[in-house]
């Protein structure tokens, strides 16, 4: 067995905002493969941890910890006890953030009216995103608004830095269940003014 020939890089799959899976055909006699991932086709700017990365005698490898929107370049070399073969062809892939933020809203809220216009109701809504630590979050109506008697739907919208957005909603029901209070005078004693 001589020095292994260059493997044939095949394709990428399972691409997410921060990772992808690189697949390749094997090389006869190879016992290990070395993986390079860089941000330029000349392979002078390597991704940390992905220069001559030994991945074993397998046919696929997951590349993780990437930045959305960046184009990456991958290549492989086969190894055996005779040495290291040449580079495979280069495969380029751009990872993208396509996942919308996840919004957490409260359960539907029931509130008692505090006046003829309804009641001021406060609530908490949050949003989390895999790539954007602070997605923009808006609510309509907003927390602390005066909600009228009846059912009002609150809609929350979250948008991340890549423009992915999601919505979630819940209801606020304001009811008047308090009976009116009646004010009456004290018992009244009246002096008669005649026989009738």
Summarize the structure in words.
It is a single chain. The protein is rod-shaped, with a radius of gyration of 34 Å. With 196 residues, it is an all-beta fold. Helix content is 0%, strand content 44%. The strands form five sheets. Strands 3, 4, 6, 7 and 8 form a five-stranded antiparallel β-sheet that branches. The model has no long low-confidence stretch (mean pLDDT 92). It is built from no helices and 16 strands.
Q: Can you tag this structure with a few keywords?
A:
196 residues, mainly beta, five-stranded antiparallel sheet, four-stranded mixed sheet, 16 strands, 0% helix, rod-shaped
What is the straight-line distance between the termini? 135 Å
Largest sheet properties: 5 strands, antiparallel
Looking at the chains present, what oligomeric state does this protein adopt?
single chain
Proportion of residues in β-strands: 35-45%
Cα radius of gyration in angstroms: 34 Å
What does the overall shape look like? rod-shaped
What is the number of helices? 0
Count of strand segments: 16
- The helix content, as a percent range, equals under 10%
Q: How are helices and strands ordered from N to C? A: EEEEEEEEEEEEEEEE
List segments where confidence is low: pLDDT < 50 over at least 5 consecutive residues: none
What structural category characterises the helix and strand content?
mainly beta
Mean pLDDT: 92
């Amino acid at each position: 067995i001589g020095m292994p020939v260059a493997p044939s890089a095949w394709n990428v799959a399972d691409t997410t905002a921060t990772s992808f899976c690189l697949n390749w055909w094997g090389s006869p006699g190879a016992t290990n493969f070395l993986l390079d991932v860089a941000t330029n086709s000349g392979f002078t700017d390597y991704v940390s941890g992905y220069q001559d990365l030994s991945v074993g005698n397998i046919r696929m490898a997951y590349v993780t910890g990437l930045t959305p929107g960046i184009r990456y370049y991958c290549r492989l070399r086969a190894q055996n006890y005779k040495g290291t073969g040449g580079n495979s062809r280069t495969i380029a892939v751009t990872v993208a953030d396509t996942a919308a933020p996840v919004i957490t809203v409260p359960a539907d809220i029931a509130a008692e009216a505090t006046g003829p216009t309804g009641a001021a109701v406060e609530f908490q809504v949050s949003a989390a995103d895999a790539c954007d630590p602070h997605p923009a979050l808006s609510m309509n109506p907003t927390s602390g608004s005066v909600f009228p008697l009846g059912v009002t739907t609150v809609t929350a919208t979250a948008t991340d830095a890549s423009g992915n957005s999601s919505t979630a909603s819940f209801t606020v029901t304001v009811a008047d269940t308090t009976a009116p209070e009646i004010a009456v005078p004290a018992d009244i004693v009246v002096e008669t003014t005649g026989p009738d």
